[in-house]
Amino acid sequence: MRLPQARLDQVLDRFREIEARMGAATDGAEIVKLSKEHAELKPVVEAVEAVQRARAEQPDLEAMANGDDADMAAMARDELEALKERLPVLEREVALLLAPKDKDENASAILEVRAGTGGDEAALFAGDLFRMYQRYAAEHGWRVEVDSVSEGDAGGYKEIIASVTGDGVFGRLKFESGVHRVQRVPATEAQGRIHTSAATVAVLPEPEDVEIEIRDQDIRIDTYRSSGAGGQHVNKTDSAVRITHLPTGIVVTSSEKSQHQNRARAMKVLQARLYEQQREALDSARADARKSQVGSGDRSERIRTYNFPQGRVTDHRINLTLYNLPKIIEGEALDDVIDPLIAEDQAARLSALEDEFG
Questions:
Q1: What proportions of the chain, in percent to the nearest 5, are helix, strand and coil?
Q2: What is the pTM assigned to this prediction?
Q3: 288 in any annotated domain
């Protein structure tokens, strides 16, 4: 893909404009905003400058390759050949940086895992999935805080909601949204028969620099007694919080020990869900992306199967099958699934950019 010089100049002009405004700005909020855009554009500018240097070098090498000095011409032809191989790679890097991307790519996220069909085994599987994400988060230096939990009768979780905080969380986890299916022999199965169960995963971006208005008259807040393990505290204190957003019917809960903390956490989850609803309604680019091969990430869409007897994990959106299930479910090798999904998404974004440039 050969990017138009005008598009590259546009990036450089914007970067210089931001640097000039940063030098003159006195308002704190404006400085923060400009600094953020500067940081986002800097790697793009460095890639653009590498392309420009390579393009500028090409005519000189071509002239030397056709010169009278045989030794110099031979050397120039070798360098020109290497440049012609390197230039498309550099241009692709720039194209990828310029391609339309999810504006929430670098955001932290709300992770929701719920047991689906399969009774106790589904709750156990939901627990396995949540631990997989916990360990994956630890590998990437992200922080996981549980906001709400409902434990399964035989272990695992009927539902667990957590905040995952760190750089680029949503960008790496967003394709985990959907129905995850497991095929294995449950511990309670005396006949050794394989059961199929499911759990749903939702990954919602935590809104950054976005105003999500939640009016007091639009919510109902109820407190109730926590249930489950936790000693005397959960049996005596109405500390759990349930918030109902009346216009949309969205209900969120938080059931840790502090009522004040529960209210804050529940409001954060409600904001994330309202923001996701807003994204789905208004972001036409994302709606188009939902039609791509990677899929929508909708919770109703079956995206992946974990087959324990065969040690196999299959992601149905990109027809990817791997035979390292133990390491994937431990979170160690989850990138083996996530990286191809990101690559597929990048290919779709590059294709959109090619259509733009003709």
A1: 50, 20, 30
A2: 0.69
A3: no
